[in-house]
Amino acid sequence: METLRERKKRRTRESLLRAALELFTSQGYERTTVDEIAEAVDVSQRTFFRYFAGKEDVALAVQKMTEAAFVAAVRARPAHEAPMQALRQAFLEGWDTIRETVESVVPVELYLRMYRTIESTPALLAAHLRRSAATEETIARVLAEREGVDVDTDPRPRLAVAVFGGVIRVSERRWCTSEDFGLESIRTLTAEYLDQVGSALTGNWRTG
């Protein structure tokens, strides 16, 4: 059971996180200072640094949580599923868990706005891609363990994750520029693009 002290610390962290994302999305990441974030929650800068290493850390905190939820979903997939099927189903069937992860700390609408801010801020986008690469390596090792292969000598785990990660990136970019900028739309778009992977890689694109 969560103690009163633990509850207070969690609420302070979540308040800092929400305040930071509101400021980043309203006035820009580069123009926002740690002092402004702390002031919005009526705490000291020192208190901010008890919870976050800096602006980048708080800006990507929710993404970190959703990535962890996805890795957990991959680990939980049935052993009989082929690697790409496991990745697909972990994403599609685990979507409610990912949504709940977001909603547990910030409003979904704020998360969506922050996603666009990340995509339009070079420093944040670079950091996001670095984190994504690290997550993909973790998932490749999970797949290798599931399949009983050595990730350092068998290229298939990293190849599968690279293809899946590529689909996610293409989906995200399309999603961020579309009019239907909702959480369910990225799920639908990703499923649609995953269905096209086979024909895109092996099919003949010419119609004439």
What structural category characterises the helix and strand content? mainly alpha
Identify the CATH class of the largest domain: Mainly Alpha
Question: Poorly predicted ranges (pLDDT <50, ≥5 residues)?
Answer: none
Number of domains: 2
- CATH 2nd-level architecture of the largest domain: Orthogonal Bundle
Please give the radius of gyration in angstroms: 19 Å
What shape does the CA trace take?
globular
What is the string of helix and strand elements? HHHHHHHHHHHH
Percent strand: under 5%
| End-to-end distance | 66 Å
CATH topology of the largest domain: Tetracycline Repressor, domain 2
**What percent of residues adopt helix (DSSP H or I)?**
over 70%
Name of the CATH superfamily of the largest domain: Tetracycline Repressor, domain 2
Average of per-residue pLDDT values: 91
Sheet of most strands: none
Helical region count? 12
Instruction: Please report the total strand number as a whole number.
Output: 0
In short:
The chain has 208 residues and is mainly alpha-helical. The protein has twelve helices and no strands.
Descriptive notes:
The chain is an all-alpha fold and 208 residues long. The chain has 2 domains: 4-56, Arc Repressor Mutant, subunit A (Orthogonal Bundle); 60-202, Tetracycline Repressor, domain 2, CATH 1.10.357.10. 76% of the residues lie in helices and 0% in strands. It is built from 12 helices and no strands. The chain has helices spanning 4-27, 34-41, 45-51, 55-59, 61-75, 83-93, 95-103, 108-120, 122-147, 156-176, 183-195, 197-202. It is globular. The relative contact order is 0.10.
